[in-house]
Amino acid sequence: MERDNGGSELPATSMAPKVVCNVSHSFNDRPILFLPDRAKQPGIPEGWASVAAEGEEYEANFVQIAINVMRKPGTTENVLPELLQAWFGPDAGKPGRGEQVSLDLIAGRYRMTPIDGVSVVTSQSFSIVQLPTDVDVFAPDGSEIRVLASAARGSMAHGTLPPGGVSLAIRHRTVEELWFVTEGRGQVWRRLGEGDEIVDVVAGSSLSIPAGASFQFRNTSETGEPLCFIMCTMPPWPGPDEAEFVDGPWQVATSTCTP
């Protein structure tokens, strides 16, 4: 039976027998585990549940989209980042790496182990990454991010803004980006120095976001399409501290842009 420390309690028979999580980064730049889509995989616990790893007993906090804390029973220290870095190294969860862990239900509790053979296949300087089904991380602006291939001087990701979505307005401190819209319809606001503009974008549109430019975007589809785009970031995305929030032209409803 799942532990009940404020979360729902599930009989072991109704818990998902296997849960594969992607290793990614939270906004504090520490590795975190992102859960599969709950709508597609019922039985994922909610709240605190017993998890064993490396022969030790832990309590894991299953929030809506992630496991954000693992701790020894009776303690408050979050050992999840250290455990993931012990398995995958100090760069665990950084873009383009594709690490995963498996939670296997055994005798009513989960056992967590690293998965060998991650989704990134490398040969010398080559890499190949398939577009993930599940969200890897939510960007500082609130859009869904699925990590794609990366190299020493640039990284690539797939972004999605749902119908009616409005991003938070941000400014990148050091990186520049190139975007290519693959699906949907939207508007992008950009400001650099004294000049600013709002442009309409559709599938096939491409645009640049220079380093230091403020920007915000929204989905304007009237047919319920998501706004999807490929982003190339140069140099590679350094972490959530890269973005700082600014004032933009559109008001943001929190529910449209945050997990």
In angstroms, what separates the terminal alpha carbons?
27 Å
How many helical elements?
1
Q: Could you report the average pLDDT, rounded to the nearest whole number?
A: 85
Low-confidence stretches: 1-9, 117-124, 255-259
Give the overall form. elongated
Structural class: mainly beta
Strand content: over 45%
Main beta sheet: 7 strands, mixed, barrel
Strands, count: 20
Rg for CA atoms? 20 Å
What is the string of helix and strand elements?
EEEEEHEEEEEEEEEEEEEEE
What topology, given as strand order, has the largest sheet?
Answer: 1-2-5-4-3-7-6
Roughly what percent helix? under 10%
What does this structure look like?
The chain is mostly beta strands and 259 residues long. 3% of the residues lie in helices and 45% in strands. It contains 1 helix and 20 strands. Strands 1-2-5-4-3-7-6 form a 7-stranded mixed beta barrel. Strands 10-11-12-19-14-17 form a 6-stranded antiparallel β-sheet, with no helix packed on it. A 5-stranded antiparallel β-sheet has the order 16-15-18-13-20, with no helix packed on it. Strand 3 (47-53) and strand 4 (56-62) form a beta hairpin. The longest helix is centred in the N-terminal third of the chain and has 9 residues, at 80-88. It is elongated, with a radius of gyration of 20 Å.
